[in-house]
Amino acid sequence: MRVARNVFGKPKLKERTTSDILIRLLVITFLAVSAYTLFIRMEYKWDLFSAQTGLKFLARFIRFDQVPPKMMLDMVGRLLNTIILGVLTTLIGAFVGLVFGLLGARNLTNPKVSNVVKGIASFVRAVPTIIWVLIFVAGYGLTATTAVVGMAFHSFAFFVKSYAESFEEVDRGTIEALKATGANWFQIVFGAVIPSALTKLISWIALRSEINFTVAVVIGPAVGVPGTIGTMINNAARAGNYEVQGFGIILVFITAFLMEIVVTRLRQNSIVSNH
Amino acid sequence: MSNAVLSINNLQKTYAPNTKALKGVSFDVNKGELVSVIGPSGAGKSTLFRCINRMIEPDQGSSIVFNGLDIVDLNRDNLKNVRKHIGMVFQHYNLVYRLTAIENVLHGRLGYYSTLKGIMGLYSDEDVLKAGELLDLLGLSERKYFKCSNLSGGQKQRVGIARALIQDPTLILCDEPIASLDPQSSKVIMDYLKDITKQMGIPCLVNLHQVEVAINYSDRIIGVSAGSIVFEGTPGEVTEDVIKNIYGAELNDILQK
């Protein structure tokens, strides 16, 4: 007997359902809209992107020798400021997020509390960090503190979700075992839940530090927070100091790259050494 | 009064309106006794065990008298007090694998500490020494400071037993303690449980899948089928007919581990 095959020769191994048809329709619509936008709606100005101009800029970008040493030191200082802003907001978010993460974990509270906590966290997370900073700036004026509060606020919501999920992955039996010995809620949380989830919690902090560093870089020029590397890069670009701008970008790149390596290591360890 | 440590009367548990997991179970567990509960999967053995320390709430009208107190009527604080005196050993050990063996054993004492001391892990010298002694007793002297994830199945289960013993329990519930272990480790664990009942006088209620093991180690066997007790007697009284009644199959048709 012959096996039924489609146009591409792939054997038919399942019944076609409504969801298959819907997915197909969605893909076709998406492709059609993309094609329309790319080939008909867009107005291209390719002449602006001449190779000559590009090379000229690139040559100035990498002339780090023209950056005065005092400026370099100043920039490294600003970079440190930016890293500290990222880490600080992460730690504040992680600390508050830990408390609400416990309340959001289904296996530690009742479903109602969990839903409310997770719902609020989802709402906060749905709005991008920069928008939160702008909202806080509108309310409390432009200071470094406002940036910290705005960034920490979004981080907090991130931690509520990631921590709650990490807690929910803790083996039910372990919690049951401690409950059976007569331990109370706090003792179960600190005796079993947090130790079991600890490496995951730490790897979430590392991941968020990386995210918050990039946010801290962008937040300077976007909102106008002084003293960050982003503001410096922005000012240099406006003043036409391309070598300063280039040096700043390299600094940011190296930092982000190093953070990425650390985060990947941590996350791998926390997955591999599970049990 | 008899020397019953635990006296269960008409224990019922209804999950959904039409699913009755336990249909009026009654039995006693006496001091120094190892009682096995056998029966097919889904007969209600695990539900029965979890009703005893109220990890699962039994139905109204059930009665579980432990140390002269009816567990079914207790409020939360008193329930925690009762749980302190009932040790529990699990099929999957249920340890915190990132912590060391001795830390896991000490978890059995948490119920005796204030919240803050428990959180900080400020265990008394007495308890730390006791935990060490228990691990020595269970042949884990060399493994005290090992992370539990690095222990073998049999060793993990011995840590689980030590955690139950440090509670100073009046009764130990063992929910399929050897179901995940190889035959050799199973024997070691069953021998320890036997020693605990005979030498320390702590009665053990053991939920078993292996009829042969139940016959070899128990003082009394309770057969459960479809939420009811269908047999209660000494290992000598377990006949082909009894097995057939519990499992709905001949002994020869049941794979013996």
Helix content of chain B: 25-40%
Biggest pleated-sheet summary of chain B: 6 strands, mixed
CATH architecture of the largest domain in chain B: 3-Layer(aba) Sandwich
Look at the structure and name the CATH superfamily of the largest domain in chain B.
P-loop containing nucleotide triphosphate hydrolases
User: What portion of residues of chain A is helical?
Assistant: over 70%
Largest sheet of chain A: none
Number of domains of chain B: 2
The assigned structural class of chain B equals alpha/beta
Question: Any low-confidence stretches of chain B, pLDDT <50, length ≥5?
Answer: none
Overall body shape of chain A: extended
Give the N-terminus to C-terminus distance of chain B in angstroms: 40 Å
Describe this structure in words.
The complex is a heterodimer of chains A (275) and B (257). Chain A has a single domain, classed as MetI-like (MetI-like fold, Orthogonal Bundle). Chain A has 275 residues and is mainly alpha-helical. Chain A is built from ten helices and no strands. Chain A has helices at 18-41, 51-61, 69-104, 111-126, 129-140, 144-168, 172-180, 185-224, 229-239, 242-272. Chain B is α/β, with parallel strands linked by helices and 257 residues long. Chain B has two domains: 1-85 and 171-257, P-loop containing nucleotide triphosphate hydrolases (Rossmann fold); 93-168, no CATH class. In chain B, 34% of the residues lie in helices and 23% in strands. Chain B has helices spanning 45-52, 76-84, 101-106, 115-120, 125-137, 153-165, 183-199, 211-217, 240-247, and strands spanning 4-14, 20-30, 34-38, 63-66, 69-70, 86-90, 171-175, 204-207, 220-225, 228-233. In chain B, the strands form two sheets. Chain B has a six-stranded mixed beta sheet with strand order 6-7-8-3-9-10, with helices on both faces. Chain B has a four-stranded antiparallel beta sheet with strand order 2-1-4-5, covered by helices on one side. In chain B, a hairpin with a 2-residue loop joins strand 4 and strand 5. In chain B, helix 6 (153-165) runs parallel beside helix 7 (183-199). Chain B is globular, with a radius of gyration of 18 Å. The N and C termini of chain B lie far apart (40 Å). The mean pLDDT of chain B is 91. At the A-B interface, helix 7 and helix 8 of A face helix 2, strand 6 and helix 4 of B.
